[in-house]
Amino acid sequence: MRQSSHRFRGGRLILTTAVIAAAVMTSGCTRIRTHQGYQVDKLLVDSIQPGIDNRASVEATLGTPTFSEQFGQGDWYYLSRDMRQLAFASPKPVSQTVLRVSFDGAGNVSKVSRTGLETVQKISPSGDKTPTLGRHRSLFQEIFGNIGAVGAGGMGGGGGPTGPGPNGS
């Protein structure tokens, strides 16, 4: 009888160790959800009306925009994005809302528009080099390629026999 209880304790220890090991290994596989940007409140967004609201009333209702247009009428953008990430993988957008509030010349709201995930673009870098147009030069050509070119006549160097002297003559 004593031997069977000893086996039971050993089995329980192995089972407990296996459960703890499995919990530790799967804890790195948890999903991470994050929110970035503006917290969209549908009721507040729907209350912005073209022809009625202006910049001051939009800011009082929605707050400061995430960013604003630098040229043109100065449209305001409110960006909201929910991301999901599994362990060490790259984060992926789950939902996105870009709220654009357009203003006319007098600062009154002319249009309110929304876009979603359809505007998200996936950019995949190609290898470890950025392709460029033009000559393909080696490291040594880049380092030593300009030797003798600095100050050469006709290259913008000052004061040679073909250019004006320091007094302009």
The general outline is: flat
What is the top-level CATH class of the domain at 31-120? Alpha Beta
Largest sheet report = 5 strands, antiparallel
Run of helices and strands = HEHHEEEEH
* Overall pLDDT level: 78
The helix count comes to 4
The total strand number stands at 5
Helix content: 25-40%
Specify the structural class. alpha+beta
Instruction: Just name the CATH architecture of the domain at 31-120.
Output: 2-Layer Sandwich
User: What is the third-level CATH name, the topology of the domain at 31-120?
Assistant: Beta-lactamase Inhibitory Protein, Chain:B, domain 1
The radius of gyration over CA amounts to: 32 Å
Uncertain ranges:
none
Summary, kept brief:
One of its GO terms (biological process) is protein insertion into membrane. The protein is of the alpha+beta class. It has helices spanning 2-27, 42-46, 55-62, 139-144; strands at 31-37, 67-68, 76-86, 92-103, 109-115.
Please give the structural blueprint.
Blueprint: H1 2-27, E1 31-37, H2 42-46, H3 55-62, E2 67-68, E3 76-86, E4 92-103, E5 109-115, H4 139-144
